[in-house]
């Protein structure tokens, strides 16, 4: 009983909200930008911390399972970039739409997928979010369109989703993400043009993690001002390692879209700790010291943690408690992902079509027939 009273007193002593000065965004074709003085409540801070820690631990577990050859094939990890996904998601609605490239585990989680479903998808099990058929690059949930393996191909698809939003007049928008490596693709500039002509409610977001595979942005792009690439589309360059910067910029961009002004472009300056994919050790084109420097000076989780502790918004013990809970959730999910059965062969061709009578699908030869059920 005494412990409960002490605990209640301790929680009552915390600051319920604090105001922070955040880095100003660089602007293009905009007279004013997002707020630089922002309020963070204690509840928001704890929520952001938990989500980012879950994403970080999930990716580290995926790394471990990949090295044990339990996860196979392509696998692109998101650790280091957590502030981007969390900042974006807290500024839009779950009824809004989001599409990204193949570094998609974090967004699958913020869009509503569970750690268990994501881990089971990585190991190709029946309980996976795509029933074990999609793997790392092809995860989906409501209003989340993947997970796309072709570089840059998700951008025109995202504009199509935004066109549907405009056509239906539902005041929704589409967040369309791509990396600096995809930013030089012709289809992206074609999409900019159509989105601007039709004033589509789409936020184009370039997650600039400084390297497209093993090529630095300076070696790949004549102009590294990705937020200016829209030319006729207004743009923002944002500190992608600060969840509050991303949150405020996304709020600003969402308001822009919903007010009928058409598309807007955001460049989030971020960093990935792992290599491009699990087949890339990530140290042949950058130094270990560079990675360590980003970790020590700009880590998104550490930045939020330091803010909360220095402003008496949480205690070290409370955050450690969250860490323990997150680790347990990840371990339980990994256990499920390694024991859940793989999908049976008869499920292989299911879900080719939606709301269609079952049909026969040819197998590897004309005599092998499989059944497809919607």
Automatic annotation (TrEMBL):
Quick one: a GO cellular component term? mitochondrial matrix
Q: Where in the cell is it found?
A: Mitochondrion matrix
- Does the record bear Transport in its keywords? no
Keyword match Metal-binding:
yes
Q: What class of enzyme is it?
A: oxidoreductase
GO biological process terms, semicolon-separated:
glucose metabolic process; pyruvate decarboxylation to acetyl-CoA
Q: Which InterPro entries match?
A: DH_E1, PDH_E1_Alpha_Subunit, Pyrv_DH_E1_asu_subgrp-y, THDP-binding
What sequence ranges are listed for the domain Dehydrogenase E1 component? 52-345
Example of a GO MF term: metal ion binding
Membrane-crossing residues?
A: none
Indicate where this protein is primarily found.
Answer: mitochondrion
For this UniProt record, the keywords arranged alphabetically read as follows: Carbohydrate metabolism, Glucose metabolism, Magnesium, Metal-binding, Mitochondrion, Oxidoreductase, Phosphoprotein, Pyruvate, Thiamine pyrophosphate, Transit peptide
Q: Which reaction does it catalyse?
A: N(6)-[(R)-lipoyl]-L-lysyl-[protein] + pyruvate + H(+) = N(6)-[(R)-S(8)-acetyldihydrolipoyl]-L-lysyl-[protein] + CO2
Needed cofactors: Mg(2+); thiamine diphosphate
E.C. number = 1.2.4.1
Could you tell me which NCBIfam families the record lists for this protein?
Answer: PDH_E1_alph_y (TIGR03182)
Record function comment: The pyruvate dehydrogenase complex catalyzes the overall conversion of pyruvate to acetyl-CoA and CO(2), and thereby links the glycolytic pathway to the tricarboxylic cycle.
Under PANTHER family, the record lists: PYRUVATE DEHYDROGENASE E1 COMPONENT SUBUNIT ALPHA, PYRUVATE DEHYDROGENASE E1 COMPONENT, ALPHA SUBUNIT BACTERIAL AND ORGANELLAR
What is the protein name given in its UniProt record?
Pyruvate dehydrogenase E1 component subunit alpha
**Organism for this UniProt entry:** Astatotilapia calliptera
């Amino acid at each position: 009983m005494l412990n409960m009273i002490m605990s209640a007193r301790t929680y009552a002593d915390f600051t319920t909200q604090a105001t922070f000065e955040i880095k100003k965004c660089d602007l293009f074709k905009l007279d004013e930008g997002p707020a630089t003085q922002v309020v963070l409540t204690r509840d928001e801070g704890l929520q952001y911390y938990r989500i980012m820690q879950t994403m970080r631990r999930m990716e580290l577990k995926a790394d471990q399972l990949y090295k044990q050859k339990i996860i196979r094939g392509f696998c692109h990890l998101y650790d280091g970039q957590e502030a981007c996904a969390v900042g974006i998601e807290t500024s839009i609605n779950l009824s809004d739409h989001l599409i990204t490239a193949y570094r998609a585990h974090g967004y699958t989680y913020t869009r509503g997928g569970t750690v268990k479903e994501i881990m089971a998808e990585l190991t190709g099990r029946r309980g996976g979010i795509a029933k074990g058929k999609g793997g790392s690059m092809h995860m989906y949930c409501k209003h989340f369109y993947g997970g796309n393996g072709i570089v840059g191909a998700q951008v025109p698809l995202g504009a199509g989703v935004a066109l549907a939003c405009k056509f239906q007049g539902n005041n929704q928008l589409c967040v369309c993400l791509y990396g600096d490596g995809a930013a030089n693709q012709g289809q992206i500039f074609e999409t900019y043009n159509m989105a601007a002509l039709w004033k589509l409610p789409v936020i184009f977001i370039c997650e600039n993690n400084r390297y497209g595979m093993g090529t630095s942005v300076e070696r790949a792009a004549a102009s590294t001002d990705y937020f200016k690439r829209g030319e006729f589309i207004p743009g923002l360059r944002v500190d992608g390692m600060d969840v509050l910067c991303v949150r405020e910029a996304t709020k600003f961009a969402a308001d822009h879209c919903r007010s009928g002004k058409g598309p807007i472009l955001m460049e989030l300056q971020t960093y990935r700790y792992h290599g491009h994919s699990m087949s890339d050790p990530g140290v042949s084109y950058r130094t270990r010291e560079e990675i360590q420097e980003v970790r020590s000076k700009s880590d998104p989780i550490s930045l939020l943690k330091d803010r909360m502790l220095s402003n008496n918004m949480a205690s070290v013990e409370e955050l450690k408690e969250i860490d323990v809970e997150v680790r347990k959730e990840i371990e339980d999910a990994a256990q499920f992902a390694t024991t859940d059965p793989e999908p049976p062969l008869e499920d292989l061709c299911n879900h080719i079509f939606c709301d269609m009578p079952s049909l026969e699908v040819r197998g590897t030869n004309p005599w092998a027939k499989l059944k497809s059920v919607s």
